[in-house]
Amino acid sequence: MKIFRHIWIATLLIATTFFINGCGYRFPGDPQKHAAIWQGTTLKISGEGKKQYPVLAKKLQIKLANRLGMSDKSSDNSKSSTLIIDLNPPDRTLILEDEDGRADQYRITITAKPILKGFTKAPNYPTVKGSTTYYELRASATTQTARISAQTEALQSLSEALVAVITSIKE
Fold first, then answer.
1. Does one domain contain both 77 and 11?
2. Between vectors from CA 122 to CA 131 and to CA 37, what angle results, nearest 5°?
3. Counted domains in the chain
4. What is the pLDDT of residues 114-132, one digit of tens each?
């Protein structure tokens, strides 16, 4: 009887989600909704973070372009606006040491400041950050892998925070 109830609730939730989406409701972060707002706006990543970590900068540019429904290529239209993301390099901070005094747990924080150019009343966006905590093991191969994974996770957190800030002020 419990299994039937769980299946029924799951089916009801899925059907409700399809119904809401079918009625025209768009969930937050929907690229279709943002595409009209950001039409003609070009996305650029700049700053020290782009110079020191070009792969992270490119990943951020792709994530933001996809989420906002905008172009990450420069356009020929001179009247178009530009959203510049001033990216800072990842900051690695020691959080915890083990009983031997060795560094064990770190936090990686990535900050960025969105700047909108080309509008007469451009909003002043705050600096946005994304962070994650991770453990470093003793082996160097796993340490590098853990650090790269943590940077990617912090970048995902940053991109979600940037979308939330940019869309809340622009709309």
1. no
2. 80
3. 2
4. 998 877 777 888 999 999 9
